[in-house]
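As a warm-up, study this chain.
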Amino acid sequence: MTLKEIAEEAGVSAMTVSNVINHNDAKVSEETRKRVQAIIDKYRYVPNMSARSLSARNSRIIALLLPVDVTKEQVEEVAKTDPLRAAIMKNTLSDYYVSVMVGYLESKLKDLGYYIMLRSFFHADEILELQRHWQVDGCIMLLPKIEDEENRKILAQSRCPVVIIDRNYPDLKMLSVGVNDYRGGYLATQECMRYGHRRIAFVSTVEPERVTLSTVIHSRYQGYLAALRDAGIPEKDSQLLGFSSTLLDGRHCGEYILSLSPEERPTALVVASDTIAIGAIAAMKEGGLRVPEDISVVGYDDLPMSSLVDPALTTISQDLDAKASAAGALLKMAIDDPQMEGEHITIDVKLVERGTVTWAPGYHAGS
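Now compare it with the structure written out below.
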């Protein structure tokens, strides 16, 4: 069965069949699409992707780019004393947020008729080389490294459209998708204060000195500070802690909290990642701290596992499905229209109340 034969049986043009196969639904009526699809399913027709790529000068392949936020030299140095940690450092999918987002993106791109090429990288040159040797229709970069020069090089020299998720450069005409991280930081802090907490620490996924370099984390931190100010808590009483974004780093965070005296210890944590929050809770519970009775915790992301841990994690939910849909739609628009200029899409967030926030120790409701 050929494309031409399908068109003849359906009583449509070969172009119409091609539009159905390529998911160009706007160009085909729903009734026609269903009729053509039924014939495709009946004969189990599979298009020759290589031939289509050569004739149409596109591959239906999207490169999903996952930056490694360390250098090769750093990995090699850590490997000398801690091989397990070195392996985690360069495994981009060990970050649960990244692995969940990859799943959402693959599903959305599949619905749009694309295949994904998954690629982690240390340097921008690796991606530019990939584009020279592979015919990809577009790229989506997830959670870029905070070194601006590397990301800007990819954007400036890319041979195809690139959509960036979780980073925005206001001075560049770029395609990007993010969430209202300022509001997320504000809501998380506000939830802690609603239960009488005033010693609230912000736990970052980057070192404190690098917070200003990360668009996402800096926005969440600024939301945290704004909530403190609005409640009359001076910035000098804020606490900024910095760890990386794996469960292991979350445990290090919990161990650090345990090392503090009761007078130094915050009574609540606003954590910039569910993964760190869950690791921290596990370590604190093992060390004798009760969550939330002794210390409250609010996470960020609303990953699937957040509702399954004990206690279930109160968190800021970003609609990951909507985020992936927006990235896929934005990239397809840019592929269809090479003249398309920059556009940034912002997804809203909301607080999901579960079981890791309660009244501050010694605080009584209504007091």
